[in-house]
């Protein structure tokens, strides 16, 4: 039943479809075997815009629905992310058998429930994990991904087709890495170098939020503040994690110091940001831990100010605040 002729439109992400939603497609019933379940399915082909390469569906609609992925690029339909990234973040297991012969039966058995909409893929996701995925996702379709592949002869300096060459005469980039990946690996969410890189980046952000060994640090440093954010917004958001001593905004530098009364409050806030990102009024802020109280002379302080965007005026270290709140404007003006 993989191909009953009722399929009118493939399951595609916005990027693969291209800029024109009314793009003309050719349709070939039972045109190819699905790269996952090996059953014949209706293959669609189309050109997703000028200067792009022809695209076609690679897996059947049932396999796509089973994982909520695009039939062509195998990226998640909701977030545009590799299956491996999505499943790692959601703590989801791959349930489709890896052995091709078993895959066929597995998918065939699930076909009716999938088509009846009985399998709700995304319903299981935790709200916090969803938010983090949204944070990692691209907000716009990424049409560059549809460009012609890089010419392998050109890369070796051997292409003599010149302007007639249908491939791209450029050195390879990360897009071509995506193109080289094996579809089944990407579907199962394993061995995916692009996913690996994204997860590593997230892990690095996690490192950044690891509590510093200096237990006297009870402050977090927020950057990337949107223009419309107020001190009250920040106060409201962070007070949920622990009692605040002060919130000092430096609008000029789009940053703020969040000073907690206790270490526990700062740790709870950092943990929450690590788990779900730090979203205030719908805008993602970047959060790091505050630095240890500078001990050196003023010159060293000045040196540090180059790296930390804002620094307390010399002499203010006597306060127990990491970055004291008495004179926020002085903080802003001390920068640069
Ligand atoms: Zn399939
Ligand atoms: Zn796609
Ligand atoms: Zn070429």
Automatic annotation (TrEMBL):
**One of this protein's Pfam families, by short name?**
RRM_1
Organism of origin is Coemansia brasiliensis
Specify the residue ranges making up the C3H1-type zinc fingers: 145-172
Positions the record marks as coiled coil are: none
Mind telling me which PANTHER family this protein's record contains? PRE-MRNA-SPLICING FACTOR RBM22
Q: Which residues does the UniProt record annotate as the domain C3H1-type? A: 145-172
Q: What is its main location?
A: nucleus
Q: What is this protein called?
A: Pre-mRNA-splicing factor SLT11
Alphabetical list of InterPro entries matching this protein: Cwc2/Slt11 (IPR039171), Nucleotide-bd_a/b_plait_sf (IPR012677), RBD_domain_sf (IPR035979), RRM_dom (IPR000504), STL11/RBM22-like_N (IPR048995), Torus (IPR032297), Znf_CCCH (IPR000571), Znf_CCCH_sf (IPR036855)
